[in-house]
């Protein structure tokens, strides 16, 4: 080993130990990323190994459908985790490396070349990311069992799936974490290692280069933001546009942090009485002096909330539009939902009491599979109903054939999967087979979009006890309840048409919140970590100003009020950005609704917004209060001396 290599190794170990707090952030973010990615990749491998192609066909199909859902969800979690980790690790690496610039300058004075400094800083970054990756792999073991348990509790995995560890997933997670960490941290490393703090001309040239680069990237981002905001729904769907729009706006603000903060602080100086309050002036000055570093303490919150809240808005508004459009063909005034399907005799008695045209059964047949491919997840969808009476409840338009031809083993189709004349061999729940012939074609709508629509009277035995069964009715709800009681059907709920639609929307929103919570778990955890680190760096950046404040005679109450003012400025920045981001998203969602032919306003999911916002802002405020306590404690120590 050469003398230079030995010197570099000693310097690296000394500096790494000296700045271990800064690198702890890189280790922490990499560890959280590694643990969640390992757990998700482990779930992906478990799902891939759990596909079934033997046993009872309908049970295997139900199993495989949940396995496919589990695989798609965990793939999304891996992607979101890696993307968010790369973005936040860039900020955390800046926190760790920027305080090192004076030391790197001194090392350059004693003979270290730029390549030596680059090897030194890259080595430190690699060591920190490796440590975080190893810690993440260790934490990935309990995280894997916890994630599988959470997915099972939320009905996203089959109940019989046994949790286990797949070694290959941990190797893949380590690779993903390493790549995300190096991609995110390499740019700050190159920028810091190439800095020459004692070379004035080099500093000016470097500042000009950064200014040109920042200006070019800002122009490109601004063009991208305008294109995403103005693009029609047919060109770029709103959900895709919002996923790209939010990070673009966030990066645009971070790149121009000083300009943005200067504008905010100037506006706040215009508030009545602000110029006559010394504490307010100092607070605004400190908030502006933090520059882009001060913004980094808030941008992780803006990024997480700016993605979560608009996507929840898109999903909620899309669900509302879908429900409104789907309910247009429904002419029923009441809907009966059954906890367990009634017998065919009870249904016949109910219809006899109220009127065959006023109560129409509608049952999903979920346990019949195609004999051609009995284990595929994509099975034909079947509905059993009374097609002759259904037009009185649901708008029904026959393109070929008629209702009278549907009966026995004949069926109508409301999808492109089958045409008139096709025959389909099906395997029933009891293992028997049946051949169905398509004799009619129906225009599709929300209630008539199934591949095969069978006559209920002739195929009531296909309706299992765990299937969805309801009746559409135009009779009064009191009459329906009386008829249900007379037939001895107790596990039924009678709702109005609007009540049933609203219940569907509430159920969809509950499921949506559960999915959003699990998808955004990784970004939110990383955002919380980056927020705490950002507040710490911000406190260090403004440390000199606080020392001057003590020399000028600021009391402890003055210091407390001034720091709370700085915190208020950061909260104002967050609110201002979120208003812009959510406003743009609401405008895009409004255009999405207009393109769908509805006048539905954007739906803000207040539960998701309130919970996520309170957690994120509470983390920011808590981190600031901790540092405020440390600042006041340091001030009391100086007074004692």
Topology (elements, then pairings):
Blueprint: H1 3-18, H2 20-49, H3 57-97, H4 101-109, H5 114-153, H6 167-193, H7 200-230, H8 238-255, H9 257-269, H10 278-289, H11 291-327, E1 334-338, H12 344-354, E2 359-365, E3 369-370, E4 382-385, E5 398-400, E6 410-413, E7 423-427, E8 433-442, E9 452-455, H13 456-459, E10 469-473, H14 477-486, E11 492-496, H15 497-519, H16 521-541, H17 543-551, H18 556-595, H19 606-640
Parallel strand pairs: 4-9, 6-8
Antiparallel strand pairs: 1-10, 1-11, 2-4, 2-10, 3-7, 5-8, 7-8
Description of the molecule:
The chain has 641 residues and is α+β, with helices and mostly antiparallel strands. Helix content is 67%, strand content 8%. It has helices spanning 3-18, 20-49, 57-97, 101-109, 114-153, 167-193, 200-230, 238-255, 257-269, 278-289, 291-327, 344-354, 456-459, 477-486, 497-519, 521-541, 543-551, 556-595, 606-640, and strands at 334-338, 359-365, 369-370, 382-385, 398-400, 410-413, 423-427, 433-442, 452-455, 469-473, 492-496. The protein has a six-stranded mixed sheet with strand order 9-4-2-10-1-11. Strands 3, 5, 6, 7 and 8 form a five-stranded mixed sheet that branches. Helix 3 (57-97) packs parallel to helix 16, helix 9 crosses helix 11 and helix 10 packs across helix 18 (556-595). The longest helix has 41 residues, at 57-97. The relative contact order is 0.12.
Nearest-integer average pLDDT: 77
Residue share in β-strands: 5-15%
Question: Given the structure, what is the number of helices?
Answer: 19
What is the succession of H and E elements? HHHHHHHHHHHEHEEEEEEEEHEHEHHHHH
Overall SS class: alpha+beta
Instruction: Give the radius of gyration.
Output: 32 Å
For the biggest β-sheet, the strand order reads 9-4-2-10-1-11
Let me know the number of strands.
11
| N/C terminus separation | 49 Å
What general form does the structure show? elongated
- How much helical structure, as a percent, in the residues? 55-70%
Q: Poorly predicted ranges (pLDDT <50, ≥5 residues)?
A: none
Main β-sheet, in a few words?
Answer: 6 strands, mixed
């Amino acid at each position: 080993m050469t003398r230079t290599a030995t010197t570099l190794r000693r310097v690296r170990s000394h500096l790494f130990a000296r700045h271990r707090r800064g690198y702890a952030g890189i280790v922490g973010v990499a560890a959280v990323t590694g643990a969640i990615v390992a757990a998700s990749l482990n779930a992906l491998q478990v799902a891939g190994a759990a596909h079934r192609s033997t046993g009872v066909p309908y049970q295997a199909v139900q199993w495989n459908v949940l396995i496919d859902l589990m695989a798609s969800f965990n793939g999304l979690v891996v992607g979101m985790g890696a993307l968010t980790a790369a973005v936040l690790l860039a900020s955390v690496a800046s926190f760790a490396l920027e305080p090192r610039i004076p030391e790197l300058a001194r090392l350059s004075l004693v003979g270290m070349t730029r390549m030596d400094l680059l090897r030194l800083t890259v080595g430190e970054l690699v060591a920190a990311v490796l440590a975080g990756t190893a810690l993440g792999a260790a934490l990935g073991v309990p995280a894997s069992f916890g994630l599988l348990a959470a997915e099972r509790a939320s009905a996203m995995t089959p109940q019989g799936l046994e949790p286990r560890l797949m070694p290959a997933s941990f190797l893949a997670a380590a690779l993903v974490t390493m790549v995300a960490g190096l991609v995110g941290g390499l740019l700050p490393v190159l920028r810091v290692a190439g800095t020459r703090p004692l070379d004035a001309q080099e500093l000016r040239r470097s500042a000009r280069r950064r200014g040109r680069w920042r200006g070019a990237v800002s122009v490109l981002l601004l063009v991208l933001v305008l294109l995403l905001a103005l693009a029609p729904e047919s060109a770029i769907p709103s959900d895709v546009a919002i996923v790209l729009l939010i990070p673009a706006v966030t990066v645009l603000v971070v790149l121009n942090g000083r300009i943005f903060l200067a504008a905010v602080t100037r506006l706040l100086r215009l508030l009545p009485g602000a110029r006559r309050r010394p504490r307010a002036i100092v607070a605004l000055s400190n908030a502006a002096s933090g520059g882009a570093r001060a913004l980094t303490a808030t941008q992780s919150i803006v990024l997480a909330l700016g993605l979560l809240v608009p996507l929840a808005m898109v999903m909620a508004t899309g669900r509302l539009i879908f429900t409104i459009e789907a309910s247009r063909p429904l002419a029923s005034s009441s809907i009966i939902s059954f906890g367990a399907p009634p017998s065919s005799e009870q249904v016949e008695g109910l219809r006899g009491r109220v009127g065959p045209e006023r109560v129409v059964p509608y049952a999903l047949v979920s346990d019949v599979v195609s004999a051609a491919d009995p284990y595929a997840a994509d099975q034909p969808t079947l509905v059993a109903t009374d097609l002759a009476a259904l037009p009185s409840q649901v708008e029904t338009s026959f393109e070929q054939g008629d209702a009278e031809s549907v009966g026995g083993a004949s069926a109508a189709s409301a999808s492109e999967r089958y045409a008139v004349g096709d025959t389909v061999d099906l395997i029933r729940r009891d293992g028997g087979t049946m051949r169905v012939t398509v004799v009619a074609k129906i225009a599709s709508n929300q209630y008539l979009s199934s591949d095969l629509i069978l006559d209920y009277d002739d195929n009531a035995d296909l309706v299992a006890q765990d299937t969805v069964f309801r009746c559409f009715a135009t009779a009064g709800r009191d009459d329906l309840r009386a008829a249900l009681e007379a037939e001895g059907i107790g596990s039924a709920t009678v709702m109005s048409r609007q009540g049933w639609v609203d219940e569907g929307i509430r159920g969809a929103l509950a499921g949506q919140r559960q999915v959003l919570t699990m998808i955004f778990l990784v970004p939110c955890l990383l955002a919380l970590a980056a927020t705490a680190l950002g507040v710490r760096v911000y406190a260090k950046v403004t440390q000199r100003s606080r020392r001057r404040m003590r020399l000028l005679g600021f009391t402890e109450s003055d210091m407390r009020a001034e720091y709370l003012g700085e915190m208020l400025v950061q909260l104002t920045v967050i609110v201002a950005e979120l208003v812009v981001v959510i406003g743009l998203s609401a405008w895009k969602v409004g255009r999405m609704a207009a393109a769908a032919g509805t006048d539905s306003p954007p739906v803000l999911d207040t539960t998701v917004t309130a919970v996520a916002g309170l957690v994120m802002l509470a983390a920011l405020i808590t981190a600031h209060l901790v540092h405020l306590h440390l600042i006041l404690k340091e001030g009391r120590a100086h007074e004692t001396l």
